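User: Run a structure prediction on this.
Assistant: Running it now.
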Amino acid sequence: MRIYDIIHKKKNAVELTEAEIRFVVDGVTRNTIPDYQISALLMAICLKGMTAAETTALTLAMAHSGDTLDLSSLPGIKVDKHSTGGVGDKTTLVVAPIVAAMGVTVAKMSGRSLGHTGGTVDKLEGIPGFNAGLTMEEFFATVRRSGICLSGQSMSLAPADKRIYALRDATATIESVPLIAASIMSKKIAAGADRILLDVKTGNGSFMKTVGEAKELARKMVTIGEGAGRKTAAFITDMSNPLGFAVGNILEIKEAVAVLRNEGPEDLRYVCLKLAAHMLHLAEKGTVEHCKTLAEEAIVSGKALEKFAEVVAAQGGDRAYIDDPDRFPTAKIVREIKAPQSGYIQAMDTEGIGITALLLGAGREKTDDKIDYTAGLVLHAKTADYLEAGQPLATLYTSDARKADAAKERFLECFAFSDTPVEKPPLIYCEITGPAAVGESKY
């Protein structure tokens, strides 16, 4: 078997066999296939696509290219959640404690930020002492003790995906739906959960710019998950606005804690309760409506907040910052941005807002960039809100005055105003379910 022949087949839109795909993934893992040939194959896939069978074969081959977690020794049904990434997306910080507080095991591995989207691990590392780099022994011990763990991704899980992802990033093949689906689901399957809930973002702040693209990706991932024996469902959620008002690591931790205190932004609370209810439903805790009641109870009773503080402490973090978020440091430079004109906010460039936070120091453009955990921004209005000229539009936080100047200029480019009222976009478009991903429930 030769990689040349496999590239030639895919270039001509011929379906690859499972054996050929395993040969490629093995060569990627063992470093026996050079980057230029892998890159050629990725471009052929990007241009010619993959069948459902090819995508599933690629996913499973990458999932088994390294270690896989066996969670069978942990109690009950294990449920995992994945978001395709967005701006202000701190749902894991709220949803995971809710679900764990209701007695479902959540053994979660999360990623870091890169580009305009934030990473859950970076947010958590804004808590003094928090350790996301757990060994497998520490990971399992934390889950057994607290019923939840929020760890960084193990380098030993799906190593083939790491090399392929790096090459996709360098060869303009990131947008390939089969490659995105295989990348996400290989890590989810390797992580060992029994059930998987996917939060697929759509809008200008996400990788999937249209609802149609998001549905295509969701259906592929649900089909892969079900084919791998994991009951899987997906929500299509909006990312034409940041979720919540805070964008930036410590700022988002504080906003997540506010929701767990039964406060915080209504949009963030709404999406988190929907996701938590469906995770509980996947874990067979009852009907979706009953599980929504359980999720609300976890917040109102304070159990979810206590569970979050518990896992923070279990992973070395100072829970005093969860009990009293005012203890968190504030950025040295705080600047209020005012509305440049009167009118309704017609649209927001959400990706641009994420880039603004990046410019302020809240994210990283390269994997070795340092993060300013205090940096970011807090919005005071979103799409469809009316503002008079001069009213507060947002507050920027940073430690560098030069960054504040550059970020302000970029931020003001992110808004379009209208003289007439504007309709708010829906927060959730639909749910994708079923072994063949054919079930679709609209919201």
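Residues 178 and 290 are 35 Å apart (CA to CA).
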